[in-house]
Write a structure and sequence with these properties.
The protein has a four-stranded mixed β-sheet with strand order 1-2-4-3. Helices cover 54% and strands 12% of the residues. The protein is built from nine helices and four strands. Helix 7 packs across helix 8 and helix 8 packs antiparallel against helix 9. It is globular, with a radius of gyration of 22 Å. With 211 residues, it is of the alpha/beta class.
Length: 211
Amino acid sequence: RMEYDPLLVEKAVRLAVRRDADIERALHRQTDPIYPMLDVEVRDRAFAEVFAAWFRKLRLEAPLSGLLEERPLIGDRCSRCIVHEATRRSAECVELFVREHDNGSVVRTLLVQVLPESVVSLDRVSSLLRRELLHVNDMLSDAFGYRAGDLASLPQREQIVRDRYRVLWDIHVESRLLREGRIDDRGFARLGQVFERALTARLPARTTRPP
């Protein structure tokens, strides 16, 4: 299930209604009577209910839901999808959190961080989110065989090894999205530069750990 942060919902709705003066006035007719409420908790709850209703009415959740539907494995294996506001544009991302319980059960939570303007116009970050979601899909896929421990190495070699692994994975993701027709080929120029830097970096010599 998808859970949107109420503050992100409010900001996205306020941005969306600016496109139509009549719709914006209709929103204000519902929110204006809430401001004089003295009980802070009651007031906040009333605002949250109004903005949540408008969020659904404007179908602002539909674009992100559509991206998630492209990767049904994520929906099958994650119990929650939490959508929060990103602190800045460069912080927009998707992360996977995994918690293992003592009884052996595993709970997976998907965290999506986006700006309010991206919720309103998801096209501006759809390519980014598609890449991030395909990475998560790989992490969840038995066939891909992702294991975080495979990236472990000696500390002085770890960053270079991770960089090389990441750029090869990014190229694999980019190629599949391009074949699916979900992105264009402009990302390969950047990946080519990253590939060259990562693969020409010299690995530090292996050393023996002290006893």
